Amino acid sequence: MYNMLHIKDSHKLFEFKEYFKSPTEAISHLIDIFTVFSGKSLTRGIFEYKSKGFSPINLLQTLILMPFLGAANVNSLFKRHYHLFYEGQKDCLYDTLRNHDTNWRKLLMNFAKRFLKTLAGNISERRVSFFIVDDSDLEKSTGFFEGISRVFNHVTKTYPFAYKVLTLGYSDGKSFIPLDFSLHNEKGKKKNFGLIPKERKEQYSKKRNESSNGAHRKKELRTQKGLNLIKMIKRAVKHGIIADYLLTDSWFMSENMINEIRKIKKGAIHILSMCRMDNRKYLTKNGEINAPTLRRQNKHLMKRSKKYRAYYIEQVVEYKGVKVKLFFIRLSKRSKWRLLVTTNTSLKFTEAYELYANRWAIEVFFKECKQLLGLGKNQSRDFDAQIASTTISFIQYTILALYKRYNAYETIGGLFNTGKTAITEQVFSDRIIILFIELIETLVELLNITIELEETISAIIDKTDIESKIGLVFSTHIDIGVTKKAT
After folding, report:
1. Most exposed of 109, 331, 356, 428 (fewest Cβ within 10 Å)?
2. pTM attached to this predicted model
């Protein structure tokens, strides 16, 4: 879902286009950074087999490098580039993707930990950090993929065949990296997953050892996403990764989410989330009141932020025994009121607004993984292969994120030089998009047009081939200290 906030402070829409100009250039760019993610400790306990005598680590490296060689899949890799790496056959790579014993979740977490460890002693300042969560559709052409269903797409209002990929990421305001994910399907109103009898009958299936990693991942298909998210966060904390805030959209905001997250590390993680304007009750000095009524009762307290051209009302209340601050926000006098909720009641409106803008990083992540790294493009009907290919796309993004950090944010040359002023890249196309969105917002306000602004802008960005319409030219944006400020 499109972030309701302005995107002046968002991450780049195209973080890595620069590194995909040609296979040769991409490989030369990545050679120096790829070695950071080498070593047996990274893959220890992940693979328990060899495919026709070939090391799974070498096969994994081949799979990771495919998009940088201009290969969209294993078949195209073998047509043009396979001889650069090893003399095996296609089946070796397919076997690696389909093996249900491989611990892909641990592998992704190991890459994330290596990324953070590489940065750890080279950051000269304490930065606000975020867990960011969202889901996205991985659409398929048929209903014959294992465990797939029809899912509701909130932008197009259609029901394509797809998996919902629920993703937990980490950001320090400069870089976003994926930590964990799960694939989900939806039962639908008729509880038949949107499938006709033929599709249910011919849907791929295979037997797995119940204790295997693949079997555990397949069980997650029907697990409630909110419950799985809590497990992901607890796993990340167990691995030593913790953030100051959890940023979510309204679909994940619930009593259980607040209670479970606030119990972690004695309340170390605050929640900052959009919330539905529904009938859930908040305890005030005047009793229990729902959000729409509370907003109307306090309309005389409405203020306007000149910086963000937004109207807002703030109230501190209790929700199920937890003190929270509510921010009622709208971008024009005719647009709908939105509700932003945080467990950090000391936050001012501008602070909450700017912190929440960091959630846009996961939207950028999904867009680039789909456009550049083949996320969701794997055509194997085997569920294990879908988990494997999704993990590989996420690992590729993590590697690129570290290269970006070396090359753009910090000095390159083995180790980061501490205390160096960070200068980042901002593509010219972003500036055009920002101006375009500002124009839409201004017209909506001046003409008093009633539209779902965030969904409209999201659909425009999603449907537009930005690269073919705007030349990419580097520029810069400002990054100030602990929190990213609007440029």
Report:
1. 428
2. 0.80
